Amino acid sequence: MSATPPVGGGEPVEAPSRVGRAPHPLRRFLIRRVAQGLVTLLVASVVVFLATSAIPGSPATAILGRNANLQAVAEINHRLGFDRPIVDRYLNWLGDAVQGNLGNSSVDIAQGATSAPIWPIIRSPLADTTTLALVTVILLIPLSLVLGVWSGLKAGRWQDHVISTVTLVLISMPEFVIGSLLIAILFVASRLLPPVSLISPGVFPLLHPNILVMPVLTLLAVSVAWTVRLVRVGTIEVLRTDYVQMARLHGIRERKVLRRYVLRNALAPSVQIFALSIQYLFGGVIITETVFNYPGVGSQLVNAATSHDNTEVQAITLILATIYILINIVADLLVMVLVPKLRTSP
Question: Which of 136, 138, 150, 268 is nearest to 212 (CA)?
Fold first, then answer.
């Protein structure tokens, strides 16, 4: 242990030790959020497994029909392991999932396949949905910030009224209505774009950008409507704060006030808004994918539920839950970075 000379005489004072120093606030926050995320994911896995197990019907009845021979149904259920205790089935499924094994398709196994891994089945739809979501997000974030901040700066004026009216109309319209209107305008009336977004399995959607236009516009219209309104509210609240008013009284140029004070402080609450939008784009695109026949994970989930492929439903839901949790963690970290005082909060 090193010692430092005393000030004004006296005994030497030992320098403070770095051993046992508290971790950085961001690191401590990240560790806590990851731990919470793992617990949340564990609870979600239990709920998903119990919910899918409680759904009436099975792959055997879906394949053989309602009037199927009971012995044949029992044989298929035995092959799938459905006659085992539910706790044993859950623990085996969870253990395999932790190791990266999402299991085998219940329907394919019921039809006699010896092996039908889930991941190759859902990999392409998941990639297609990710592409659709990322393209929408790339357009959503700057558009929402520009329109939301501008509407907040022009609060009460005609520009604000126009933006508020348009976003309110879009919020009141479901996805299938917006999608149908786009089909009527861009296909039926003008023949500019195809009405469906069919692509071959394994083909990257960006290689055919024309099929992405209408799904992206539909998702963008739904998402941007309420994100713009929330960013507008955040901007108005920041403009009314004392430090913004004081900066203006000190003669700081409006552009500098906007860049240094308004944008940064309005962006922090907007991060959570965008996080919710991204979560919706990954898990709530079922209607949009159905309208345009887009081969994403939403359509795959509907098909799996219809055919009682419980293993595939569980795998897709678990992946989506993991994506949700990761998005929340990243959003919380960004808020911590943008608002320094949060790093000093207990």
Answer: 136
DSSP letter at 220 equals H
CA distance 265 to 222: 25
pLDDT in tens, 61-79: 766 666 666 777 777 777 7
CA atoms within 13 A of residue 208's CA, in its CB half-sphere = 17
Query: What is the pTM for the complete model shown?
Result: 0.79
Structure token digits, residue 279: 């979560």
Q: Which one, of 133, 125, 148, lies nearest residue 218 by Cα?
A: 133
Give Dmax over CA atoms of the chain in angstroms: 98
Q: State the average pLDDT over residues 144-164.
A: 89
Give the chain's domains with CATH numbers.
24-116+311-346 (no CATH), 123-306 (1.10.3720.10)
Cα Rg of the chain (Å, integer): 27
Do 16 and 29 contact (CB within 8 A), yes or no? no
- Given a contact cutoff of 8 angstroms between Cβ atoms, the answer to whether 185 and 195 are in contact is no
First-to-last C-alpha distance (Å) of the chain: 31
